[in-house]
Design brief:
2 copies of one chain form a homodimer. Chain A has about 525 residues and is α/β, with parallel strands linked by helices. Among the domains of chain A are: about 35-185, Rossmann fold (3-Layer(aba) Sandwich); about 420-515, GMP Synthetase, Chain A, domain 3, CATH 3.30.300.30. Chain A has 14 helices and 24 strands.
Chain lengths: ~525, ~525
């Protein structure tokens, strides 16, 4: 059969040819069709070449969800450069470390991020040029001694038609760092092939199921793991693409959904809470909305029910990771199956549950195990790492603990590194946290291990009360009785006024352990 | 990212793990789950190895749509053998030529096909063993001196677990011959990669859109171009698979749809005419049916309307070819877009229209051109051919004339080899045939070219009246006036009592030309 490289530029080529006038809308700013987007992105490739970039060179983006950012995606990837997306909410030191490891040569910067960019450029000698997206202004202070281009001027002065896709499908396309709460951030280098296959996998009718009739609101940042793949999936099917810019506030999203006839929306649950609150306060509705895809963290049933009832839309829970491009599992788009847990696994990803030693569990259903994955869009080796991150069977360790029910629904039940080993047996903090977290007056909650001369480790409960609440230790522990094994009940309760958070917003257990258990 | 070969055995592995009890139903015969199907197909691989087959060896199937035939698909492909599907409706000489070119080593034969198989084996010395599917009996006459195994006995005596997928994704998986009305049949050798990608492409929500909630009736023969891909698509998503066996009669299909809760059905239009007639005669309904996918030939609007109204199901027209694996275009599964023409083109296939010399037409919309295609599941070179079947840009010539409208809907308007060149300009017989074919009393109709000293060629109209009808030449030609250019109007009308047909059921224009215009 024909040789046909699976490269992501083909998605935009397809959209430009068949869905030339389907719109890409940036809130309060640009509006264009796929043909226009393709022409501009391609001219951007020419401009980047004119700046001296070569195949495989990395271009960093520090930007929100906008047309310019999308053009940076295709302008880099189409020409064989690597789009390195940066999360503006991370610390300067972390970002600079990523950029230096990536040896980024160009930095594209969105609105409101110039001061951060100035700091980063100071720490990153490899950056030769800065591109200002979305009308961002440098202001009176220059960005050190780097060349600075406004995006539109760069297109005007350096833009030129460029050849796209003239490379192997295994060429790198994107770079995204994980930013867990442990250790140094690790880079995942996506290839054209992995992104292409991820897109087709996600487009299945039982998964993300986008169509040309859809208008998709991408409320997940484009710097998070390929923007969950929507920058590829939308042009691949000719869906209208609605980009909210920086804000994901309820009022902003509600207006976008109403103005742009949004049918599918994707983002983490906090975003949808804001939308719900806004709709409740104003009495507005979002009648065009049909589906909401949520991910990032397990979603409580009560929130799913509130969303489905208030939005009159189907909620699709999902589970994914940067290392998975990112889609792992997702609840089906249609049918009578309720959104349970984090959904089921579409073709192209193999899951297995192992014990702590890595041995495959004899029974894979209704038991908790360490979740390992294998597939066409899964990392094998972190960027610039010396060894593969795979087991002997070629599986990647997600670091998650999970169960799978009889219908194949996955439930993430904790992180393996958070497990506490007491008397030779494992205690799963996540299960205790879930119970305590539901109690009245409890804000944030974390369970960490403290070393113990007799048992090896023992659990300690750390709680942050909600404002104006006092928590009673006995009441807290009482709630666990009968719900977890007796020996899982923490030995000690620590009250904190503010839980330490990592840059990602997750609780920083490393700091907790350092502060309270050593 | 991880190396992950795109091989079709992964579809059945996926189904066996996640949809183990979803059924594969063969009308009046077997019923099993995907886990059972996987185990049996895998043991069949072991049996074929025990017969001495090696990687890449061809195994022919002469069979209907049954579980055994599906097991032959996976039993061969999973182990790296090639499944060569044969159309039992072709002439012995054609089939024997295909088998000899393929050097098939094993022939699997379904019910009612033993006599044909006996003839084929006589002509094909490479066949070493015959496998009897679905309880087929050899009868008192042996099959020459070949080994003969009943399918179940072969599994019992030679079945063994076998390793699947231990080869490159570009390894061959299937072989299917085109059987056009011109020239010798040509083989298309599908690879694992082309079949895998074809499956993902077809599964998009705007295309075939199968889900785990579906029950799919495959009324297209499994010997036609991968059975339109359903043997792969169904396990890939865990859909229930309903196989009708040999019969596609209306009463048989109606009962299957009712008994097995069929939601999606696929087949050529004649099959659905039989279903409609049966439902009208009996007053029955098929309430579970949601969609019908038709292909094989352009479908008249009146039939689409009758189907949608009587079946209360959405009709998806499509266009494809053996050389395309076979899906080319398809009308979307949902939404407000009406099924027009042959639908739109999902990602993964590029189309272009050229003139007769092969030059790309400057305007691609609303003009008729020669349709060329490029994609991951398109043939590059016919089996054992010495040269590629591609143009300089890597496109394959479909041999079809087509137009594409502003919405991207493809309409096939004829075959390029049927075109008649008169006075240096082209006449498209298909357009004349369409007009004449709608006249009362007209059965079959064909327009062919006759050489002419002045104009080069001139059109001749050949008609077969419906039973008990007489056709008036002047009336026939009058119907063309104003609907085609004056110089397109045929010079001569020939009445035949029976139009000569090729083995595929299409009108044999070669014979017509030989008989009436030379």
């Amino acid at each position: 059969m024909q040789s046909y490289a699976l490269t992501v530029d083909k998605f935009l080529d397809h959209a430009a040819k068949w869905w030339e006038n389907r719109e890409i809308v940036t809130a309060g700013a640009h509006r264009t069709g796929y043909a226009g987007l393709r022409a501009r992105s391609n001219r951007l490739s020419g401009a980047l070449k004119a700046l001296g970039l070569h195949t495989g060179d990395r271009v960093a983006t520090l930007a929100w969800n906008t047309q310019h950012h999308l053009e940076m995606y295709y302008g880099t990837m189409g020409a064989g450069f690597v789009c390195h997306t940066l999360n503006p909410r991370l610390a300067v030191a972390h970002l600079a470390a990523m950029m230096n490891e990536a040896e980024d040569r160009v930095l594209a910067v969105g609105q409101g991020l110039i001061d951060l960019a100035r700091e980063l450029v100071f720490h990153c000698p490899s950056i030769e040029a800065v591109v200002l997206l979305d009308g961002a202004q440098v202001g009176p202070r220059p960005i050190w001694d780097r060349q600075v281009f406004a995006f539109e001027s760069l297109l005007d002065t350096h833009g030129a038609e460029a050849e796209w896709g003239a490379f192997d499908e295994n060429a790198p396309a994107g770079l995204c760092y994980t930013s867990g709460t442990t250790g140094a951030p690790k880079g995942v280098l996506y290839t054209h092939r992995s992104n292409y296959l991820h897109t087709l996998r996600a487009l299945q009718a039982d998964a993300i199921a986008l169509t040309a009739a859809d208008s998709i609101l991408v409320a997940v940042p484009m710097f998070h793991a390929n923007g969950w793949g929507f920058p590829f999936a939308a042009p691949a099917v000719g869906a209208k693409l609605v980009l909210p810019g920086r804000s994901t506030e309820g009022a902003h999203l509600a207006k976008l959904i109403q103005d742009e006839g949004v049918t599918v929306a994707a983002g983490i649950q906090t975003v949808w809470l804001g939308l719900l609150d806004h709709l409740d306060q104003t009495g507005q509705d979002v009648p065009t909305l049909e589906r909401v895809i949520i991910g990032g963290a397990p979603c409580p049933d009560s929130l799913i029910e509130r969303m489905e009832s208030r939005l009159q839309a189907r909620v699709q829970t999902s589970w994914g990771m940067t290392e998975l491009s990112p889609l792992g599992t997702v609840a089906p788009a249609q049918g009578t199956v309720r959104a349970i847990a984090s959904g089921q696994v579409p073709m192209g990803l193999d899951l297995k549950l192992t014990d702590a030693s890595g041995a495959t569990l004899p029974e894979q259903r209704n038991v908790t195990g360490h979740l390992k994955v294998r597939g066409h869009s899964v990392v094998d080796r972190y960027f610039k790492a010396k060894t593969d991150a795979l087991d002997a069977e070629g599986y990647f360790d997600t670091g998650d603990l999970a169960t799978i029910d009889d219908e194949g629904n996955l439930t993430i039940s904790g992180r393996s590194k958070d497990l506490i080993k007491s008397g030779g047996e494992w205690i799963n903090p996540a299960e205790i946290e879930a119970i305590i977290g539901r109690l009245p007056g409890v804000g944030q909650v974390a369970v960490i291990g403290q070393s113990d001369p007799k048992w090896g480790e023992r659990p300690v409960l750390v709680v942050e009360p909600q404002q104006n609440h006092t928590l009673d230790d006995a009441m807290l522990l009482e709630a666990l009785c009968g719900n977890v094994a007796d020996w899982w009940i923490p030995d000690r309760v620590i009250h904190v006024s503010q839980m330490p958070l990592a840059p990602t917003g997750k609780i920083d257990k490393i700091r907790l352990r350092a502060e309270y258990t050593s």
